[in-house]
Structures are given as C-alpha cells and as structure tokens.
Precorrin-4 C(11)-methyltransferase (Berryella wangjianweii), 266 residues
Amino acid sequence: MIHFVGAGPGAPDLITLRGARLLAEAGLVVYAGSLVNPQLLEGTPPGCVVMDSARMTLEDVVEALQSAHDRGIDAVRLHTGDPALYGAIREQMDQLDARGIPYDVTPGVSSLFGAAAALGAELTLPGVTQSLIVTRAEGRTPVPEAERLVGLAAHGCTLALFLSAGLLDRVEADLAAAGLEPDTPAAIVYRATWPDQQVHRCTASTLARTARQAGITRTALVLVGRFLGEGFDRSLLYDPAFSHGYRTAHAAPPCRKGPAEAARDE
C-alpha cells in the first residue's frame, strides 16, 4: 500500500498518531525534503529507504512508489502540512490509479493552523468574519481569473496566502485595489512551529517592507484581516441568554459588551 501522509507544519510532534505509525512501518519513505522536518525520519524502522523528492520529478516519484509496490513494501509519501493544500498529490494519485496501485491519504495539521496558533488568533470571529479564504498570489503558477487576489480580498474575509512571501509588493497592490484599508491588520509567520519560527505583525500596506526587514522570501504564511484586530462579538454558543439543544437560556447579570458590539451602539 502507498500512504500519502501529512507531516504537519514542522514540529515533529505535530504529525498525527496514524502518520507516525505508518512511518514506523514503512519500507520506503519519499519525503518533501525542502519542507518536511528531517527529525520525523527518525521514526522510520531500520532498513527503511528514504528518498528526498526535492530533486525528483513526478515520474521519478511514481517510479519509486511503483517499485515499492512491486516488491510488496509499504511506502509513505510524506508531504508537508496537510497534503490536500498545495500538495500536488492529485497528479500522483492519478498515476497510481492508472497503474492499479492502491493508496490512502492520512491528513495532517496545516501550516495555516500552526500559524494561527503562533499568533494566538481565531480565524473566524463573531461580528468580524465567518469566512476564510485560502489562496495564493499569482507568480510562476497562474491563478484562474475569477480567483485573482484583488477580487477575493474585496469580500473582507480572513485571507490566508500560501506560497506568496516573495510576491508581497504585488499582494499589497492587490489588497489596496480591493479596497482594504491600509491599516488592516496582517501578519507574516515564518516556518510556523519550527524552532526558528518568526512571527511578524504588520498591516496590509506594510507586508513587503516587513518581509524585507526580516529577510523573509519563502516558507512563510501571510494572514490578512480584521480577525487580527481587537474588536469582536461574544459567541452566542456560550451566552447564558441563548438556548440550544443542550442548554436552556436563563437570565444572567449584564455582561460587558465586546468592542464590536459597543462600536455598533455608538
């Protein structure tokens, strides 16, 4: 069996229990060497063949997986974060399907959630935003016309930009064209959960300058939105005056309004 496994965002103890077990049983591991923490490979058994895919083509990877299958060896294709996000796994799975080789997928913790944890942030705040847009700036890899950043940013949702740390001048221009205020909170999280993690808070208009000052050009997640600000509403789920299937509403002493509620009353 071929196992596609999400390695998590970087910290070796953020791989799932299932992912760690599959590594411990693998006879072959093909891992994304430029992004996956090599400490994870310490969990492979003696005799396991380990291959770095950084210099491999799709054809090289599939041939290695085919060879393991032909020899009756379980193989792990180890991807960074969760392989469903910018993991390039569909093309690999299509090749395996064409060859009749079985596989499964073990999800992982995305660097998006590692970055949110580093920021101490909630991506969806009541009264601020209830939607998250995961996208990337257009670079060498094109973006569909309907998904250009200038259009997506106009929604005012939380924005999470992968693979965009080297394109922040363009990102700033697109955010401004979308109508975002220059002081819209933003952050750059470099190598979330790794020992050398960096967190840089800034604004929508200072992303490029912040990255230049920190020397960041890659391996960083960019987050933009008012969810990084101070104001939001209290959750109704835990409001004593709100009924749901597990709790009946009851009278409660007045509760201080959150900044978002207070602003609407002014």
Remarks:
- The two ends are 62 Å apart (CA to CA).
- Residues 2-109 form a domain with the Cobalt-precorrin-4 Transmethylase; domain 1 fold (CATH 3.40.1010.10).
- The chain has three domains: 2-109, 112-228, 235-266.
- The longest helix spans residues 58-70.
